[in-house]
Design brief:
Catalyzes the transfer of the enolpyruvyl moiety of phosphoenolpyruvate (PEP) to the 5-hydroxyl of shikimate-3-phosphate (S3P) to produce enolpyruvyl shikimate-3-phosphate and inorganic phosphate. Belongs to the EPSP synthase family. Pathway: Metabolic intermediate biosynthesis; chorismate biosynthesis; chorismate from D-erythrose 4-phosphate and phosphoenolpyruvate: step 6/7. The protein has 13 helices and 24 strands. It is an alpha/beta fold and about 425 residues long. The strands form six sheets. Strands 18, 19, 20, 21 and 22 form a five-stranded mixed β-sheet that branches. The chain folds into two domains: about 220 residues, UDP-n-acetylglucosamine1-carboxyvinyl-transferase, Chain, CATH 3.65.10.10; about 210 residues, Enolpyruvate transferase domain (UDP-n-acetylglucosamine1-carboxyvinyl-transferase, Chain, Alpha-beta prism). The radius of gyration is 21 Å and the shape is globular. Helix 1 packs parallel to helix 3, helix 1 runs parallel beside helix 7 and helix 8 packs parallel to helix 12. Helix 10 links the parallel strand 19 and strand 20. Bound molecules: shikimate-3-phosphate. The site of shikimate-3-phosphate (S3P) has 11 residues, from helix 6.
Amino acid sequence: MEQQIIQSKRLKGTIRVPGDKSISHRAIMMGAMAEGVTTVDGFLPGEDCLSTISCFQQMGVDIKQEGSRVVIHGKGLKGFKEPAAVLDVGNSGTTIRLMSGILAGLPGHFCIQGDASIAKRPMNRVMKPLMQMGATVDGRENGSFTPISIRGGALHSIDFLSPIASAQVKSAILLAGLQADGRTSVTEPERSRDHTERMLQTFGVDIEIEGKKVSLLGKQRLKAASIKVPGDISSAAFFMVASMLVPDSCITIQSVGMNPTRTGIIDVLEQMGARLSLQNQRMQNFEPEADIEVHAAPLKGVVIGGSLIPRLIDELPIIALAATQAEGTTIIKDAAELKVKETNRIDTVAGELTKMGANIETTSDGMIIHGKTPLKGARVNSHGDHRIGMMLAIASCIAEGETVIENKEAVKVSFPEFFESLQMLQENE
Ligand code: S3P
């Protein structure tokens, strides 16, 4: 399906974005592992999180979802049964990687696959440590790619030194570690998002965090919890940048998650010259949240790399768009992980924005963006990647004339009402 978008005169208003994707997945998984009734409010009913629900339902967990409310009747790890069919994760890397950590400790046989994008994404980063813990894993190229099969069972703890800063790797090992004998630890080169650590505490698990090392003792039981999911900062990022770029704009985004492992986007936009303020800062279930007000402002180029990258990895496509409108050069480095996301985002960002008039050089671990370049309407494509689709929609708001976005339905993965929310903010009279 295609979406036509014309240049916006300005954006104005107050909106909410859907629930945080990372937190929504974890709430379903931990609710399924816990004993008792877990309720989730503010759940993201996007395709990725619905894939998580259906995988756990296939394993016999009673989960009822209506819009953004979910009720999970957990029976603990003993409540899981061997699924009679392949578990389909759709487009969701978080589902396959975190769920594998849980399956590794369950007696039984589990087959997992996803869509064409999942088939290209590396799974060995998770499967290797799970094998070290005692799980039997197979898949294409020695367990590196889907379809993956896991025969779970008794696990032993490991001290894992992760070569990459990845919350998916860290979380999979911690979820396996919960079922293992002894103390499991994961040490990362840089700290990745810590929603698993925070939510495990909400479910009553003791967890130790010392710098870049996280550890927990196995065989702890999870107790059902009431989870309130904040708005997703990764979804809010599109409207934050839109409001900065469309002249005369001012928008407020309410109840956005402000976890410090996710707020790299705010640090970078402020460094670029953004006019934004955080209001009503508060805590919910160990997770901070706030309202964000953003005004249009002139921007300047910046250098983005190092420990900042894991704090804004999913926002790099929309930051790249902001950089096309900044005075001077923006360098994004140390971000080779972009190549193994839903698409190779170095190629898809540069390829699609170049069609609209941007000047972007690709590098082996990022991009060099020369600003400021006026953008013009063009025919562009999401390549089935939700964040590329949404970034291109915001690019269309500042491009002269009309833009057509092919494969617009990709946005349903994380933000089903994205185009409606954008329309609400547009004042094109
Ligand atoms: C996620 C972690 C990140 C992120 C992804 C969601 C998570 O991936 O890009 O969208 O929920 O744990 P990595 O952990 O592979 O960096």
